[in-house]
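Are you able to produce any protein sequence you like plus the matching backbone structure tokens because I've never seen that pairing?
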Amino acid sequence: MAFQLFTLAFVSGLIFYSGVVGYATYRKFGPRRTFEHLRAQAIPLGGIGFIIASIGLWGEVVWPLPGSYNILFFDPYVLLGIVLIAFAISVNFGRRTQYVGLLAAMTGLLSIYYGASAYQLGLTKEPFEMFLLYIALGGTAVFTFPVTLWIDRIILDPISSPGAATAEPSGATPMLLAQTKVIFGGFLLFLLFAVGSAILALLIGGGALPQHLTTAP
């Protein structure tokens, strides 16, 4: 379990760093350089996604934990792995990412529901901390959707159609600018949830690791 928590922290840390650097890259160099940045960060995300999906599928089949803990820990975990792999494939093939973002949002809502149900039932030794982790990870996944809309609009569209408008073209309508601001707000919330989930996963995983090393199975 400690390793699973660390993989969640790695994913959250990677996407937070990638989001910050990607935004700075876009502001300085434009969509083409940002697309290369996205393709580069998709490699480690896809690799971790493969590990997560493999462990999640193994847990779904073997059920190594007592009772309902297999459902709590492995159902959202395997879905996260699938989302990461799908995003890596979409970016490297230059496909639109919003459909992966929609899948991530649905996975995030499901994770929040799992966390809330587990908290009500008092599962785990630290139910409140685990509930916060599920909220943070679920929020990150939910706000992945507006981020992927932004990626499609300001990065992929200008590359696939060189004459396409950027995020704030001259002569843009007030409605278009308002939509851009809403999507940017979603991007900021995405970063906030990502850093929160990374910190929580490291704290919980770090606290569990000494006990796991002392009483290894």
Remarks:
- Confidence is low (pLDDT under 50) at residues 165-171.
- The chain has one domain: 2-209.
- Residues 23 and 29 are 10 Å apart (CA to CA).
